[in-house]
Each structure stands twice: as structure tokens, then as C-alpha cells.
Design goal:
The chain is an all-alpha fold. The protein has one domain (2-156). It has eight helices and no strands. It starts with a helix and ends with a helix.
Length: 157
């Protein structure tokens, strides 16, 4: 599935700059702390700015729930804690909330947002935003260089 999507990405008629921009915006979304909203955000941005959906989704799905989600969450928290000058350790209460999520329980969300905001969510959000900016900024020139090289090879044929 990824190979077919990747081939479609390479065969786009959009200019390489626009395709690279859509991909890098997708990468920004992938590393953003808005878990559960990534696909919705990518779709809205693709529709509003008329970006190629394949390019933006490919970037967005760098954050794959089965492969990369946990490392990205850990890196986001660690970077946020570092930026805030806090220990890399989550309090026992915050750790319990994360170990035993009760997604349909209002008390759980209240405890997470009120009692663990400063301990868990703030470092995660700041770290996620830092990762979003850095990874997106790196992905644009790399993707642009790759797409231009690919187009040059195709033009030679």
C-alpha cells in the first residue's frame, strides 16, 4: 500500500515545490500534539489550500499508530521536558493516568487536563510543536531535492 501511494506521489503533476510543501505540512501535522485529529487536520488543510491529498497524507502518516506513535510521544515529552527544564520523569499520578486511559470517562479527562496539565500535557505539547517545526523544516528541502531529481530523470527519458 505504501509503495503504491509513494509511486502516486512521485507521478504528481503539481510543481515539485508545491508537492514538497504539502508533504512537509503533513509531516508538521504528524508530529503535532493533536493526537486523534491528524487526518482531520490534513484533510481540512488539503481542501482549503487545494494541496494534493496524497502528498499531505503521506507526510501525515509518518506518525503511524503501529510503528512510530510511541517513539514520537516519548520524544515529544522528552524534548518538552528539556525545553521547560524539568526532569524527564512523569509523576506517579500522571503515569497512572497514561497507563490506564479511560477515554469515555469524564473524570479521567478532568484529571488529565486539570491535575496533570503541567506535569504531562504541557511538556508533551511543547515537545510536539518543537518536533513538528524541526521535522517539517527538514522534510521540505529533502523532499524538494528528491522530487526535482526524480523529475530530471523522467525528463531525460
Amino acid at each position: 500500500m505504501f509503495r503504491a501511494t509513494f509511486r502516486r506521489l512521485l507521478a504528481l503533476d503539481d510543481p515539485p515545490e508545491r508537492t514538497a510543501l504539502a508533504f512537509s505540512i503533513g509531516v508538521f501535522i504528524a508530529f503535532s500534539p493533536f493526537l486523534g485529529l491528524h487526518t482531520i487536520m490534513a484533510t481540512l488543510i488539503a481542501v482549503i489550500f487545494r494541496f494534493n491529498k496524497v502528498a499531505i497524507y503521506t507526510g501525515t502518516f509518518v506518525n503511524n499508530p503501529f510503528l512510530t506513535l510511541v517513539p514520537i510521544i516519548i520524544a515529544s515529552y522528552a524534548i518538552g521536558a528539556l525545553v521547560l527544564g524539568r526532569p524527564m520523569r512523569i509523576s506517579p499520578e500522571g503515569l497512572e493516568l497514561l497507563k490506564h486511559p479511560r477515554l469515555f470517562d469524564g473524570v479521567y479527562w478532568h484529571d488529565l487536563f486539570v491535575h496533570s496539565w503541567n506535569d504531562v500535557l504541557l511538556p508533551f505539547a511543547i515537545g510536539g510543536l518543537v518536533l513538528s517545526v524541526v521535522c517539517s523544516a527538514i522534510s521540505y528541502p529533502l523532499t524538494l531535492r528528491f522530487l526535482r531529481a526524480r523529475r530530471a530523470v523522467q525528463d531525460e527519458r
